[in-house]
Amino acid sequence: MPDNLLTVTGLRKVYDSSTGSVEAIGDITFRMDAGELVCIVGPSGCGKTTLLKCISGLLKPTSGSVELRGRPVTSPPPNMALVFQEYGRSLYPWLTVRGNVELPLKHKYPSRSERGRLVEDALRAVGLDHAAASYPWQLSGGMQQRVAIARAVAYQPEVLIMDEPFAAVDAQTRADLEDLVRALHRERGMSILFVTHDIDESVYLGERVVVLSKSPTWVQEDVHVDLPDDRDQITTRALPRFTALRTHVYEQIQRAKRGEAVRPPAPVA
Amino acid sequence: MTTSSGAVARSRPRHRTWQRLVGGAGFALGLPVVLLLVWGIWASFAVSPFFPSPLVIGDAFVSTWVGPSFLQDVLPSLARLAVGAALSILLGVVLGTVIGLVRWLGDLLEPLLEFLRAIPPPVLIPIVAVLLGPTDAMKITVIVAGSLWPVLLNTIDGVRATDAVMTETARSFSLTRTERLRYLVLPAASPRIMTGVRQALSIALILMVISEMFFSSSGLGYRIVYFQRNYLIDQMWGGIVLLGLIGVLLAVVFSLVERRVLRWYHGTKEVARA
Question: Which chain positions lie within coiled-coil regions (chain A) (predicted)?
Fold first, then answer.
């Protein structure tokens, strides 16, 4: 019995500017169950970040709705955590690693020892328990993104939303971080919504890949990734099924870029 | 065995530290010492009552300022300076944060602030003296009227320039208003605030002296004018030297505080440069 966590219905976002209005998101509808790891992938400039901001309550959609656990999202909900692409600007350089991870917990958990336990646990989960007293800027890019992930983990959200989190790190670090996300999902049962422009990454990580069209965006396809749960950078990526899936998603993205896919008729308002 | 090798390993860097300290002091004091020597030699050849030799000034310095005059003139001056500077910083940061955070308030006040800042603060002395009389309050008001602006305007700018992603992070984790102020807005603005404080301190020192030159019966500014009017040129120079020393002391204290407060800022800059 699937346990519905997140429902996005008919989401539309139009930016009004002096030069005219731009329809960034046309009509996006999808749902996500608890315990799922869903990847969202789309051609560049398709409004992925806009979509995430609407889902996380940072941006008000023009129309449509986002519901988390049946509750409409109008401002950032307390049971959701975000990991941004720009780790350097999302961590506070005047706080230590521990300070950064602890900050969002301050009003959630008044007990200092409870917070300390959560911070220790989260830092251990990302392999940074030795760096608690360092400042973020003393760490490499990959380690900084681990701190941002630890902050989200310690917050104990029902859903973790990641906005192209590994776009700014080198390929080897990226592979390590991908395995970290898989581990958090598998070992802690975290529900993760992962936005990326990297097709391989979306297939390697996800249980489902939601392929977006080009702007004004709608959901072009919802691909079920039938790869084994136990994934490995070498063996999983060598599987014929992996190759078939990534080729399929790649073709969908190409179609999206060329605008060949036909948008389904708009639902009656 | 272990202890002796430890001692050897420790003594070498200490030796180097000493060398660096002596070298640094040599560089810092070398030029002033040479200039003093040149001045001394020149003063002993061309005797002028207006440019006494450094030795004479040194004598006058000690005899003027060491003793009761320190309590009567120097301490009151320093107290006015401290209160004036502290008030400027406090008011500047509090008002600047509010104006920086509330967009319409900033738009409303900006032209007025630009005008007020453009008024040279010493011209306020006659008005403030009429309103408050020749009191400490008058001098402190003049100091605040001049040194408030750099703190206020830098705080407004710093608060407004808070990084968008950092703000979104705070929003997404539903930080409370107090938390946002304490852990995001103020630290993010702190480099700009410190820039303002540095300017405010030097303006405060200038205004302390000037405000004491009029309608005053104590203080460094009063003393220097008094000496000048009574042709006590040596003592007057001594007062100027003392003001210079106070300025240097202020700068040293400021840079110690700044290095502590902005440790993270200098750290990120160093990393970015490397």
Answer: none
